[in-house]
Amino acid sequence: MKLENWHLAKEAPAFAPLFNDLLVTHRSLALKWTFPAPAQTAVRDLLAGFDLAVVDLPTGLGFVLPQSAWPTFAKRVGERFASDAPLQADLAALQAEQAVWWQAGAFRYDLTTTPLVYGILNVTPDSFYDGGRYAQTDAMIAQIEKMVAAGADIIEPGGQTTKPGGFVEVEPDEEWRRIEPAIKLIKARYPQVAVAVDTYKLPVMERALAAGVDIINDVNGFETAAKRHLLSQYHHVGLVTMHSSRGHEYHNLTAGMVDFFRANLQALQAAGIAAERICLDQGIGYAKVADGYQDFAMMNNVAALNQFQRPIMVAISRKGFGQRLFNLPKDERLGVTLIAEAAMYLAGGRVLRVHDVEATRQLVKLLDTIKQSYWTLPGHGEQQ
Q1: Chunked in runs of 10, what are the mean pLDDT values of the chain (384 residues)?
Q2: Contact 348, 12 (CB under 8 A)
Q3: Are the C-beta atoms of 127 and 137 separated by less than 8 Å?
Q4: What sign does the dihedral 311-317-320-323 (CA atoms) show?
Q5: Model-level pTM?
């Protein structure tokens, strides 16, 4: 048997762009399964368990499989046809082809199989949501322990707010003074957790990298040659590069955002930074009009970034859209945050940057369980 990409564009070349866009936007795989005639019943029975529309081809079957179904599909195919070595090799090749890896310091994540919960630890007095809550050492330690226990993959100390509506910039020395204790604590006590730093200042990046952090998150997208050169010297450190439209307006937001990331990725790679190190952040909350309808447009068009095959960050935790739509104060925005995160997660946003680690961990587990569940009774198609 042979399982391979079904190149739909060859069937109808004029519609190739539409096919490609639909497959990327809906995070689906077009597959062709070729097999000898005696195997047809077994293959059809297996595919029937996935609620798929199947097309007859001269030597087999064609179908479109949601990427979310891939883990269950690969497991069932592997078990049902365990003795078919070429088919097993095809499964491994397809898995490798669709994988989206993120090299983040001491960690290397496969985002196709492992969504990441990225915990926010603001140690500032003026952050928009939790400013001042964790500035004191005891409170900071307690929050780190809580996030680790809840299942945070990454914890990001931040010592400089960039909230909309204006903020007070602090000197690099002060920013570093705020975040250094958290970095040291996490690295010493929780080696299983990656450490990120949220900063746009070169001197803070230099100190953080020297201290061994795994990720640098820059709201300015590593816009200077000096920043890019610095990050190029640390060959395994991850980058979160953010799109920001605070300084300008777009005629077409999606096209402008895609153009930004295309140029930004090119600049980073030209500086010697491997694509595998880079995660993309749309910059929700950083539009020219803070908490306006551009933010909703970015929540809606997140799938447009799947074309880059890079991790996509969902960074909307407790932001102002909850106030705009429902007049909710910051402490009552968890519900709407989770709803919006769920929509973006299903569209391809696999790195969730959040204040509420436990609730987010529950969200991704439930969504993954739902999207990977296909039921057939034993003896009818494939078993569970």
Answers
A1: 91 84 91 95 94 92 95 95 97 95 98 94 69 72 95 95 77 95 96 97 98 97 98 98 85 93 98 98 84 87 96 94 90 95 97 97 97 77 44
A2: no
A3: no
A4: positive
A5: 0.93
